[in-house]
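Sample pair:
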Amino acid sequence: MSALTLFSPSGVIAKATPLRRAVKRLTNLGFEVSVDESALARFQRFAGDDDTRLAALHRIAEAAPSIALATRGGYGLTRLLDRIDWKLMARSVEQGTRWVGYSDVTALQLGLLAHTKAESWAGPLALDDFGKDDAAGGLDEITPAVFCEAMNGELEAVGFRTEAGFDGLEAKGVLWGGNLTVLGSMLGTPHWPKVRGGILFLEDVNEHPYRVERMLLQLQQAGVLQQQKAVLLGHFSDWKMSPLDRGYGLKQMVEMLRSVCATPILTGLPFGHVPTKLCLPVGRKVTLVVDRRDVFIGWEHTHAHDAHHHDHHDHDGGCDHPH
């Protein structure tokens, strides 16, 4: 059975009910769940002041559980980047810890990659996904199934459908990315991973297509997009049309970007602030293949930490997921 610790590195948890629901669901999936002592701490809009949240990161890294799953995103990790003990974080990864989350957790994942080349997992958050009320749609089937496979070291590939026009594309490189706003805010800092020849994935929420375009053009004008072998766009959700848009939306934004950037830009990645999300190994070397409109991203099991906690996995009793 995999030890899973829930921690709050960013925004405050307003109500404990979703956290309790997440603990129950994760326990039912076969994980041995514990909640970090300061997960419910509160300071302004944050889950505790900066020192509290930094101490939680270091405390979990010292304990090195199989899985460190963030409760929620929001904002807060940017404040900690200059003070995180990256060597300690990397050591936990070597001991088998998978740091999991998305949204604001992108800052932690990219900092880890930049400073140490250690891998982490872009995947669900405890509250957003496992803690979601059934009345609000609950937990979809794909997210926990993929999460279980990834955390058990069984996930070797993910796939999705994209637009026509990329048939036959093949690329190999480091998979990296996350939330576009958070990623863009790290450009030019010591915490920016200088990935060349990589496969970059991006998502965002509450950002109008023109704002997404502006952030992507910043990456293009800074030379980042040109250095990648492919760019994968996930969901850009929860924005509202304006009367001034006059036919300009996400589709037109992508067309504009493709007109100025030679790197293949693929849409349709199931990742972002949406119910269904894959788990993606940030910092792992992957192979991307497009067959007609089907995209496959695969990786090899060569890393020691894939096998590290193997003896803890109870494959009969853990992670009952539909195949």
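The longest strand covers residues 170-179.
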